[in-house]
Amino acid sequence: MARFCDVALPVPLDQSFTYRFEGAEPAVGVRVVVPFRQQKLSGIVVAVHDSPPSVEAKLILRVLDTEPVLNEQLLELGRWIAGYYIAPIGEVYRTMLPLNAEFRRAHGYRITERGQEALYASAEIGSSLRAKKDTEHQMLEYAVLNHLADGEVVREQSLRSATQASREIFRTMLSKKWIDREDLSAVRDATRTVSVAALKEITGKINANQEAILLALKAAGGRLRVDAMRDLEANGKPVPRSTLSTLVKRDIVEIVEEPAGFRISSLKPRKLEFLFTPAQQDALRFINTGVDSGKFTSALLHGVTGSGKTAVYLSAMQEVLGAGRSAILLVPEIGLTPAVAADLHEVFGEQVAILHSGLSDDERAEQWHQIRRGEKRIVVGTRSAVFAPVSDLALLIVDEEHDHSYKQEEVPRYHARDVAVVRAKMAGATVVLGSATPSMETYFNAEKGKYALLSLPGRVQARPLPEVEVIDMRLEFQETGHESVLSRKLVEEVNERLERGEQAMILLNRRGFANFVLCRACGKTIQCRNCAIALTFHKRDRKLMCHYCGYLAPVPRTCPECHSEHIQFFGMGSEKLEELLHGAFPKARIGRLDRDTVRGRDDLENILTALHHGEIDLLVGTQMIAKGHDIHGVTLVGVVGADAALGMPDFRAAERTFQLLTQVAGRAGRGNTPGKVLMQSYHPDHYVVDYAAKHDFQGFYEKESRLRSWMHYPPYTSLANVLVRSDRVNNALTWSGLIGKWFETVPHEGVRVMGPAAAPIERLKNDYRYHFILKSRSREQLNSVLRALIAFSSAKKIPRTAVIVDVDALSLM
Ligand SMILES: Nc1ncnc2c1ncn2[C@@H]1O[C@H](COP(=O)(O)OP(=O)(O)OP(=O)(O)O)[C@@H](O)[C@H]1O
Ligand SMILES: [Zn+2]
Description:
Layout: E1 4-8, E2 17-20, E3 31-36, E4 39-49, E5 58-59, E6 62-63, H1 72-84, H2 89-96, E7 103-104, E8 107-111, H3 113-125, H4 135-148, E9 154-155, H5 156-163, H6 167-175, E10 179-183, E11 186-187, E12 193-199, H7 208-219, E13 223-225, E14 233-234, E15 237-238, H8 242-249, E16 253-259, H9 278-293, E17 297-303, H10 309-322, E18 326-330, H11 338-348, E19 352-355, H12 361-372, E20 378-381, E21 393-398, H13 416-427, E22 430-435, H14 440-447, E23 452-456, E24 467-472, H15 473-480, H16 488-500, E25 503-507, E26 516-519, E27 536-538, E28 543-545, E29 552-554, E30 567-570, H17 574-584, E31 590-593, H18 601-612, E32 618-621, E33 634-639, H19 653-665, E34 676-681, H20 687-693, H21 697-711, E35 718-726, H22 729-745, E36 751-764, E37 767-776, H23 779-795, E38 803-807
Parallel strand pairs: 2-5, 17-22, 17-23, 18-20, 18-21, 19-20, 21-22, 24-34, 25-32, 25-33, 31-32, 33-34
Antiparallel strand pairs: 1-2, 1-4, 3-4, 3-6, 7-11, 8-9, 8-10, 12-13, 12-16, 14-15, 26-30, 27-28, 28-29, 35-37, 35-38, 36-37
Helix pairs in contact: 1-2, 1-13, 9-10, 19-20, 20-21
This protein binds adenosine-5'-triphosphate (ATP) and zinc ion (ZN).
């Protein structure tokens, strides 16, 4: 008889753990709470069996669900992710389930007898007993003991904020046995419900208070949330709470528990106010046919900017909903503004769940339950929405499939686009990857016939793509005799738009004011304390900032190295460009869009709305301005430093720059007036600039494809980046050395290994970093070498978190 189950726990270990259970057998896919190394963890049951493990199995503490939270298909998808991305299965399942709100890990401390004695002693004799020790440390210990004196358990969080004690203090106090640590992890109800009063039959005499409740119930169609009845009045006085209980006792009303947020409403199909172009119709027909076939179908929808891809997605999704099935639309981080959400509600009514990063844990959990119960059949969301537990999945769409926000840059390092394809395959669904600038991988797959290629080659309403002019900034320098940020042509064209009441955008893909601070006397640039990165000067905040770890430093008056006063600011960011534009166009209303001006979701919305309403004439910003915005008044786009990123030591630099240039150019001329683009460049004959200027995706793809093939880079090989990191440089060196030796001695046929080498960013967030790049034409060989590598590291006692395996890495930095 089955008495054991294997549980996947959210710990950085590539295995599941066996526990014993008593009583009813838990189903595979439910959550359980188990003891794990002095703490309680919540994990997923992945198997139930009767074979006892070699060491005695501990008992499961609690089963959290009556039904699986991960069905067989999602469990399988998780196994695929763990295998493909070499990620611990428990961490994969944790990522797939946004239910953190329902199991909170926490711990606290309680004073021991020995602690009470120490507290007493210190009050008696003062500090002389422990005078040798650092007095600050001692004061903190005393403060902690004092706070715990009444013997209650106090959460670490509150203890720390009350006493300012660090983890180190707790650690030493634990080792002296002055305090005990206790696990306070708590389970909250998995399904949120609300109490609803439902009208049954009215019999007998009814008084005024009772009548007030019954009237409210009738007005609401016989059902009303109990908490909504609090404000009811009869004869000018509030209705007492006991009245409802009386009605329940008399069997006139009953109280039922219903899932929170549950509302039934019918779909009101929205009429599209235009006719589809023939290309849109063809694409839609292909998608609908795929959905109807019930077989796995995959397509790339390659449509130029402004070709009406979104309309195709929405139409296909309405079709799916009409058939009573489900669809998921993935959008990049920045695509989900409140305005987009409002549109989606208009099209899909109550049936759409919108999952964005602004949701609280509770809201996210609630949406998740609604989706799983089948109350929401359309899901729109960022990366992790690919795991939405919809029933009867028919269609998965990945909008702007080239966008890097689909890659999770922490464990598990999955790419939501690729997971979407795999999930669709498992579900027999249709998957559509859409973009004006498809990634090299996706276009390669389409070329090979792995995905069908659907194209929308022109803009809607036969609007032309904008004319692009490349401005050679070397000539500009020769002709004007000085270095300028804005070319004469750009200034002239912006002025023209301002005079005509049209709008312009200027892209400079770097935020801040000055991107490095240099001492003229000793030549040192000021670096981040935690990273090998130059700090950026932010003028409005009067701070130096690290764009990698967020470290802030005051602006120094003298050089920290040589104390000279010759500190100077160099380079140009969007904040400085904005200041410059104010000088050049004093009458223009200028807005800025970057991560410094967009801190909350409302900020983005406000800027875009102002642009929509013509309240901004000129918008300057980073790549955020290039993303999907459909603003009809914009007729000019300027690009400052078009090729700045081409010099990065990264094989995707060309692809990324091409995408950025094409996307930003695509913001111009989306209304009735044709658009124009000015690209300022110091390398005007670079193929990336050239193909972007000609709107020639095909040309770019072919050229880039040849280079990738010669250099053995994706999509021609599979690539993984293995990063070895530690906050101690010696560990990082020793471990990467060990792994390097191991590669020399073990056979790794078909897999090329480069490294160890210092990572391009040698130190990041306090860690020293070395890396290996592995390439192979065979995915299987690559992954088996990676698995062997993980086993070797664990045998050598290298911490699992010190070896980061990034399969299909997007960034090698
Ligand atoms: N057939 C059509 N006729 C007229 N207008 C259309 C048609 N299809 C879509 N539109 C409108 O054209 C505009 C651009 O469409 P949409 O935003 O879907 O383009 P897109 O291909 O997603 O662009 P991008 O890739 O640049 O984000 C929208 O305002 C949309 O409502
Ligand atoms: Zn830093």
